[in-house]
Here is the input.
Amino acid sequence: MNTRPFIENSIMELDPVLDKLYRSFGLSTVFIPLPLGQQAPANDKWRDLSLERSRLSAHLNLLWNSDIAALCGRASFNLCGIRFTDESALAEFRQLNSELKLLATQHPDGVWLWFRITGFVPKTQWLPDCFWQSDGFVKVHDRRPQGEEYGVLESVEPELTSFASICWSKATTEWLLPEIVASDYGNSFEPAENGAPRPNYAFWSKYFALANGICYVPNHKSFYRREPGGNDWNYLSQERVQDLFIRWIMQLKKSKGHEFITVLAQPYGLKRILESLRVVAIGELPPEQDVMVQFLDECVTADADSNATTEELFTVFATFCASRELAPMPKPIFWRVIGPLLNERFGVRNCHCLIRDGAWRRGYNGVGVAFLSARTKRTTRTTVEVANNHFSAA
Here is the structure.
């Protein structure tokens, strides 16, 4: 028997059907034979089939007179498919992923879109608005003259992409979050010596952060939350983060019935969650959303002849935030944050050498609080009253 490796040029000469399938799915795809009119193979040999063996003539001979299925998973270089039975869900997915080039095939049970996924790959499962398949096989051709209709709608070889780059509907995103987080941080609970499961705080912190749009900004030493349905990031106190977490945990317990989940809402659990959030939820605010960046850009200048106390800086900062309907961070946090930011931007350090009302105050030499009028570029330094008037007028 001839077992020489399969050569691409021979596909069209021997079987136009295989030629079309290989040109659509790519030569890294493993195809397996199905009995005519059937949806599953006659045996389990396909489970051990490799790409190399699938290109041998001994295997190709089996495909020429049979229905054909594509093998998903590692054998086909992580070929994965999504089946849509609802046209509106398909249209929404295409709109969300308009930049991806997708192979689309028509099947009796709906439309399939195909990818090759690098890195994390979810298990095969039903999702709220589609079916995700990452292993097993999918029938892609029926050879019978009166057989079921299969066809290639858009002949583009499945694009190599990461799962994280695929955009999903809100319902599907929420559904997949636990599996995505577990792929990086492990299972939600870990076995303990006494038999009771022990919470994996890194998992729950990351899950909570992603589900609620929360990030920790180290430069601010603060938490922020992205408002649902918008792009605005608002400051959150530590107490507010704890309150949101407790409510979120109780909703999960009610909807999914996790038996041991309430331990996370206990004082020790909340302490561990906050500690983990400062590690797993680190992020940076967009410059246009970073209130500290805006404040420094618009209100603080480098000036060797000026100075500002920390109290004056915070007063202007609070007024600045109020004028723009932004949530200011508390004074103690502002004082901890402003020093490193001023040092990074202007090269100045905090000192206890400024005199206000006959007393020494902490502050910064070489910086001034500045405001640009709409008509003139008049600068007023270290005068809180002028700052208030400026913002009120704006």
User: Anything to note?
Assistant: The CA atoms of residues 94 and 100 lie 9 Å apart. The chain has three domains: 10-166, 186-280, 291-393.
